[in-house]
Amino acid sequence: MAKYVIRGGNRLSGTVKIEGAKNAVLPILAASLLAGEGESVIEETPALTDVKTMSEVIQGLGAEVSKEDHAIRIQAANINSVEPSEALVRKMRASQWVMGSLLGRLGRARVAQPGGCAIGSRPIDQHLKGFQALGAEVETAYGFVEVRVPKGRKLRGTRIYLDIKSVGATINIMLAATLAEGTTIIENAAKEPEIVDTANYLNAMGAHVRGAGTDVIRIEGVETLRGATHAVIPDRITAGTYLIASAITGGDVYVEGAISDHLQALIAKLQEAGVKIEDDVSGIRVTGGPAMRPLEVKTLTHPGFPTDLQAQMMAFLTIAPGRSLVTETVFENRFMHAAELNRMGANIRTQGRTALIEGVDTLYGASVTASDLRAGAALIIAGLVAEGTTEVYGLHHVDRGYVDIEGKLRALGADIERVEED
Ligand SMILES: CC(=O)N[C@H]1[C@@H](OP(=O)(O)OP(=O)(O)OC[C@H]2O[C@@H](n3ccc(=O)[nH]c3=O)[C@H](O)[C@@H]2O)O[C@H](CO)[C@@H](O)[C@@H]1O
Ligand SMILES: C=C(OP(=O)(O)O)C(=O)O
User: Fold this and answer.
1) Which GO-annotated molecular functions does the record name (predicted)?
2) Helix, coil or strand: residue 295
């Protein structure tokens, strides 16, 4: 079992470079299955376990996949399966996105049903509602979802209103609709930058997707798509994590590659807490901190405050003077880090979807466990300022979304090491 050992108290300073976004490269790899001809080259892909898993998922379906440096090359002409490996699908929820691509390309997909996870039950009813509206038959049985275009028919474009602004459903429906007959309009679509990036890749493949990044996405179906070269956008959640990590230590860090437009909600909140933020075309500089004032933070879909930065923000607020309030509106159970932060001396009370944080003067090192990816990031952030030594377990979660976080934090001056235990 691996753990991070962190001796808190060092101020971070220097430059950290941000890699490609996990949540963009995953749907883009799924989208690459839509290419009936030609090679796709996906550049700026981060070396994460989730990216490896998605590469294995599409490889298992017959795609030829090779990796060189930060690029992944995919040839999807000879897809020969509509059933991704159950073991891989169960490892990672994002593999649900191959459903949209396989349905669009081959008219059928059979995919293991995702279960709930540490942050909520996460149903996929909106994905399936969209596929049905496009004319697919949907059957769920024996732990699998099967979606199929009836014999002799094609997917037909239509108007789909999402009851919930779901990132996953917006992308899955967009993927299937690219090769449907006629025009699909997704209303109440999610607007995350990763959806825009996926749409940009689809358009480079020859798709006609307009409006990604707004509430209404319009997709005019085309006959075929071909491979394309695309560079993935920088990871706004990783960037936000380093901004918060620097701020809690009162540091001075330049987050290279971070796009301030993608991080407006976080930047506004850090500024409200008294942290100084400056941005230029190449990145964002954060100076000062920790928080001088408490905050009220409510997670929302983009451009609201991202749920994927909620845990890290909560860690930041544990030592903010006064009483902060965090409300989680996206996932129903995303506070498991609160109890672990309390083990480090924080004073957090959760009730339903709200967490009340009474700022304390000092956090103390403890042995804590990450329940999910961002909980892991939050515990590392707390460890950076805790008195004494913090041990963070559950690193397989952290490896899903952060490339060499210990090396990057060490380069900024943190005392952190990864220790492999028997
Ligand atoms: C790989 C990836 O990109 N994951 C991101 C994606 O997850 P994901 O795509 O799973 O998140 P969604 O936007 O779909 O989920 C938002 C909310 O809608 C609910 N819901 C969703 C679909 C559905 O059919 N029915 C339904 O009820 C979910 O349970 C959740 O409560 O967006 C989330 C919200 O920004 C991020 O936290 C995740 O990091
Ligand atoms: C929740 C996340 O990812 P996933 O949707 O893959 O679980 C995340 O990136 O914080």
Assistant:
1) UDP-N-acetylglucosamine 1-carboxyvinyltransferase activity
2) coil
